[in-house]
Design goal:
CATH topology of the largest domain: Immunoglobulin-like
Oligomer: single chain
Largest sheet: 8 strands, antiparallel
Order of helices and strands: EHEEEEEEEEEEEEEEEEEEEEEEEEHH
Mean pLDDT: 79
CATH class of the largest domain: Mainly Beta
Strand content: 35-45%
Low-confidence stretches: 1-65, 348-356, 402-414
Number of helices: 3
Helix content: 10-25%
Number of strands: 25
Shape: elongated
Length: about 450
């Protein structure tokens, strides 16, 4: 550091210690010394920064300055984007500071400035490519080390191209450490405009272990198919994305049959391209497919099915009330397929189902081995729900199964009653025989 000689130290101390007059304090500083600055990246994006002048651009590997004004920026400085630079002081016992930053207004548009320390007050003045700053700690607190003071946001003009230089001039900063006024050297710094974000989102290579893609891979083709053996439980997909592209893969676990794998390529700019691979995993060669093509149960949303459903019976009558849709929900055997059936209140052509016999509908149940069984349903329409109830009662009364159940119940009842009567009869006779024997014994004893 070097002591300031341009302004009396006493005047600066009095002024900087009074927040009420901070805006009236004149801003002063001149750039007269160069400084090497450490650039701190704020993103993970790779940088291809290059200087636009003979000066080497600041990089994050540059050595830090022991005492001086610092300026750092993100690596990515792209046309049309806002970027935030951080201005600070590398010193000890900092309580107040003032200085200026000069930039090229033809490539940078000033947006805003913000003070970083919470207990500092700061005033800014920007005009014709120069930003002046003046601030101090309202708590009279010392700051020591690499002290970030200001965040300055610029917008890079849309016309900037990769390699354009972004030059800055940091004036020397006048600072106050609580006892004396000091000067921190500034300097000239230059960054280069970064390349635009890549919009490319294609694959350069795509393959699946264990087979060949159909068609052969080409970056312009986005849909492929491949067949893998039964032993392939997982698709080993290999990809190579374009430069700066990122790849995301959907699940690669395989079931027997067709499986869709999505390969999504995402560009730096956020654009996406999806490649689809249809992987057919063959069935177990030793597996015997099921031939069970039965419907195990059938549920009706309304109406009456006659006879009662049985997997072995394939032809039925359905009594329906006019104007009602009825859905039949089948439960097929394991690994068989049977779709639900809806019997509409009106035909597709719009004719009301008002005939006595409304029509015939079928449900086909297909087994795993391809064999099929057809269940046929003849629909009979009734005018009112009351008629449906009468038919239901009549069907129940006339049902052979019902008759068998009634007969069986009657037979069981008769058998039970007969058993009870027989038991009572034998019990009564047993009591009589016991009484007679007792009388005979008493009579013999009396003689």
């Amino acid at each position: 550091m070097k002591k300031a000689t341009t302004i009396p130290a006493i005047l600066l101390c009095l002024t900087l210690l009074s927040p009420s007059v901070i805006s009236a304090l004149p801003v002063f500083a001149e750039a007269d010394a160069a400084v090497t600055e450490e650039s701190v990246p704020v993103s993970d994006e790779p940088s291809t920064d290059a200087p636009a002048t003979d000066e080497a651009p600041v990089t994050e590997d540059a050595p830090a300055v022991t005492d001086g004004v610092t300026l750092t920026a993100p690596k990515a400085l792209r046309a049309g984007e806002e970027v935030t630079f951080t201005l600070g002081c590398n010193t000890s016992n900092l309580r107040a500071a003032q200085g200026s930053l000069t930039y090229d207004p033809t490539v940078l548009t000033y947006v805003k400035s913000e003070v970083i320390p919470e207990d500092w007050e700061m005033t800014f003045s920007e005009s014709d490519g120069t930003l002046k700053y003046l601030g101090l700690s309202t708590e009279n607190r010392d700051l020591t080390g690499e002290i970030p003071l200001i965040q300055i946001t610029f917008r890079i003009v849309d016309t900037a191209v990769e390699g354009n230089g972004l030059p800055f001039v940091l004036s020397d900063a006048t600072v106050y450490n609580g006892s004396e006024e000091m000067i921190l050297p500034g300097g000239n710094l230059t960054w280069a405009v970064t390349r635009p974000l890549s919009t490319e989102c294609t694959l350069e290579a795509l393959s699946v272990a264990g087979g060949n893609l159909t068609p052969s891979f080409s970056p312009e083709i986005t849909e492929y198919s491949i067949t893998l053996p039964y032993t392939a439980y997982y698709a080993d997909v290999s990809t190579t994305a374009c430069e700066y592209g990122q790849v995301k893969l959907s699940s690669r676990e395989l079931k027997v049959g067709e499986n869709e794998i999505r390969v999504t390529v995402i560009s730096e700019a956020g654009l996406q391209q999806v490649y689809t691979i249809t992987v057919t995993r063959l069935a177990d060669p030793n597996y015997v497919p099921s031939s069970d093509n039965r419907i195990l149960s059938l549920e009706l949303s309304d109406g009456l099915l006659f006879p009662a459903f049985s997997p072995e019976i394939t032809e039925y009558s359905i009594y329906l009330v006019k104007g009602q849709d009825v859905t039949l929900a089948p439960t097929p055997a394991d690994k068989a397929i049977a779709d639900p059936l809806t019997i509409p209140a009106e035909r597709a052509l719009g004719t009301t189902l008002d005939e006595a016999t409304a029509g015939t509908f079928t449900i086909v149940c297909s087994a795993e081995d391809g064999t099929a069984r057809t269940y046929t349903f003849h629909t009979i329409l009734l005018d009112t729900p009351e008629e449906l109830a009468k038919v239901q009662n009549s069907v129940i009364a006339e049902s052979p199964l019902t008759a068998i159940l009634i007969f069986s119940f009657a037979a069981v009842t008769v058998f039970f009653l007969g058993f009870v009567v027989s038991h009572l009869f034998h019990a009564r006779n047993g009591k009589k025989e016991s009484a007679l024997k007792k009388e005979e014994t008493e009579h013999k004893e009396s003689e």
